Amino acid sequence: METIIEDTLKSLEEEFADDFIRIHRNALIRKSHIEGLHKQPDGRTLLKLLQLDERLEVSRRHLPAIHKLIKGKL
């Protein structure tokens, strides 16, 4: 089974702004699932999510908003 959403990611980001944040041009993440950030030696920043081993790359463009969100959680 495949689900297709015809809305743009931008419209989904605006509609669900209270619960989700954009981390990359092609990815929205539920804010409550963010555990932390990890800076890589090569300069990339990866996002750690609760209960997942995989880390997702955060674009430089969206990094300030992620930092602000994490600082607000403390």
Topology:
Elements: H1 9-15, E1 20-24, E2 27-30, E3 34-39, E4 45-49, E5 55-58, H2 63-73
Antiparallel strand pairs: 1-2, 3-4, 4-5
What does this structure look like?
- The structure is a single chain.
- This protein is α+β, with helices and mostly antiparallel strands.
- The protein has one domain (9-73).
- 24% of the residues lie in helices and 32% in strands.
- The protein is built from two helices and five strands, in the order αβββββα.
- It has helices at residues 9-15, 63-73, and strands at residues 20-24, 27-30, 34-39, 45-49, 55-58.
- The strands form two sheets. A three-stranded antiparallel sheet has the order 3-4-5, covered by helices on one side. Strands 1-2 form a two-stranded antiparallel ribbon.
- Strand 1 and strand 2 form a beta hairpin.
- The longest helix is centred in the C-terminal third of the chain and has 11 residues, at 63-73.
- It is globular.
- The protein starts with 8 loop residues before the first helix and ends with a helix.
- The model has no long low-confidence stretch (mean pLDDT 91).
Rg measurement, Å:
13 Å
Terminal-residue CA separation? 40 Å
Structural class: alpha+beta
Main sheet overview: 3 strands, antiparallel
What is the overall number of helices?
2
- The count of DSSP E runs of length 2 or more, i.e. the number of strands, is 5
Number of domains: 1
Query: pLDDT average, as an integer?
Result: 91
How is the largest sheet built, in terms of strand order?
A: 3-4-5
Low-confidence stretches: none
Helical proportion, percent range: 10-25%
Strand content: 25-35%
